Amino acid sequence: MPIPNPCGENRHKITIVMTTDPGNVADGDRLWDSYFAYLENGHGQSLIAYTLTKGPESVNPFDPRSPVTDRTMYTLDECYPTGPDITRHWEQLAQEWEDFPEALAWAQRPGTQTVILQDGLVVHSLWHADETP
Fold first, then answer.
1. Residues of the chain with pLDDT > 90: what percent?
2. Measured between alpha carbons, how far is residue 97 from residues 27, 77, 89, 110 in Å?
3. Sheet holding 49-58, edge to edge
4. CB neighbourhood size of 12 (10 A)
5. Could you tell me where the DSSP H helices lie in the chain?
6. Cα–Cα distance measured from residue 7 to residue 18, given in angstroms and rounded to the nearest whole number
7. At what angle do helices 25-38 and 100-107 cross, to 10 degrees?
8. What is the pTM of this model?
9. How does pLDDT run across 42-100, given as a tens digit for each residue?
10. Distance (Å, rounded) from C-alpha 52 to C-alpha 36?
11. Which residue has the higher pLDDT, 19 or 130?
12. 63 FRET partner, CA 20 to 30 A, in 32, 42, 45, 98?
């Protein structure tokens, strides 16, 4: 029997894309590790799925063979049942995650660009999970 898609249609997602200069990467890695530990310790109420990806920025983002720059991209995707769950998560972060102020400052450093889709509704979703437990 197929495993159901945990973040299928009509779920709500926050997606954050950050591109940063080499001098900001070590701090970014530490902050993302801290955030992951925060979520792992049970602070991701209503969180359905979490993914952080990291990789080099491409000169031409439409060409997978394009040379890369010296800049690093991080993409965070989190899935929640509803939009208000995302709002509650932000509020909880501000109150409980000790690195929250530093993370906000890091995301706004010179040499860092941040784009956020605050409450994206999942319109289409494919899920190919292994059927064995």
1. 85
2. 16, 18, 11, 23
3. 49-58, 68-80, 12-20, 112-121
4. 21
5. 25-38, 83-96, 100-107
6. 22
7. 140
8. 0.90
9. 877 899 999 999 999 999 999 999 999 999 999 999 999 999 999 999 999 999 999 99
10. 9
11. 19
12. 32
Q: How far apart are CA 28 and CA 37, in angstroms?
A: 14
pLDDT level of residue 5 (50, 70, 90 thresholds)? confident
CA distance 10 to 13: 10
Rounded to 5 degrees, φ, ψ at 65 are -95, 5
CA distance 100 to 21: 21
Using the structure block, give the residue that is written with the tokens 């501000």. Answer: 94
Distance set, CA 22 to CA 11, 18, 52, 73 (Å): 35, 13, 18, 10
From first CA to last CA, the distance across the chain in angstroms is 10
Would you state the structure tokens that stand for residue 78, as one six-digit string? Answer: 């989190």
Q: Among residues 90, 17, 76, 8, which one has the least CA distance to residue 48?
A: 8
